[in-house]
Amino acid sequence: MINKKVNTVEEALEGIENGMTLMLGGFGLCGIPENSIAELVKKEIVDLSCISNNAGVDNFGLGLLLQKKQIKKMISSYVGENAEFERQMLSGELEVELTPQGTLAEKCRAAQAGIPAFFTPAGYGTEVAQGKEVREFNGKMHLMELAYKADFAIVKAWKGDEAGNLIFKGTARNFNGCMAGAATITIAEVEELLPAGALDPNQIHIPGIMVQRIFKGEKFEKRIEQRTTRKRN
Questions:
Q1: CA 48, 3, 41: angle at the middle one, nearest 5?
Q2: Which CATH number goes with the domain that contains 165?
Q3: Nearest CA to 148 among 190, 199, 188, 103?
Q4: What pLDDT sits at residue 158?
Q5: What does the sequence similarity comment in the record state about its family (predicted)?
Q6: What are phi and psi of 72, to 5 degrees?
Q7: Which residues pair with 208 in a beta bridge?
Q8: Could you give the number of structural domains in the chain?
Q9: Does residue 43 carry a pLDDT above 90?
């Protein structure tokens, strides 16, 4: 069994260079690879194209890369929580490709499965359809969407083993599941890293064949994007 373990986040991110395309798991601040994002900020890599459901918030997640002007293009489905993102988009500093959320997930999953393209009705008749092939299926118009091409996918899991097998926890699974294996190299950041074979095979969400590097993250903040409470009686 191949050992995919690397000892540090620095080692895990080796090979990421200016101008590359990265997939980053997470939904809001849930299930984001915190240590990897912090290391990307530290490495001062620029001109990145980032595929992620959203761009974090102003002072955390991908918002940290936006603050340092390290992201050239953002491919997302939801971007409403980040004022700096809005400023850069409206000023023309940041190229933005908005994609229906289900389409974004399927473009990742298609890349993961080696499927070059698929047809979907989502976005037909809107700006999303511009420049795309259109076909009719069962009386309904569909757009052809191409699978994503990314250099690295960086995902966050709850548990993993040294062979790269991953288990996610609750809703933190989100886009991590479909991004693992969807790029040339997949890096997994985990909370708990176990010896190969220590995970129950029936509980594994992503098999190790889809992961090239795995490391144990540290000091996860797990911030809450929006805390909503009710008054006690």
A1: 25
A2: 3.40.1080.10
A3: 103
A4: 98
A5: Belongs to the 3-oxoacid CoA-transferase subunit A family.
A6: -90, -40
A7: none
A8: 1
A9: yes
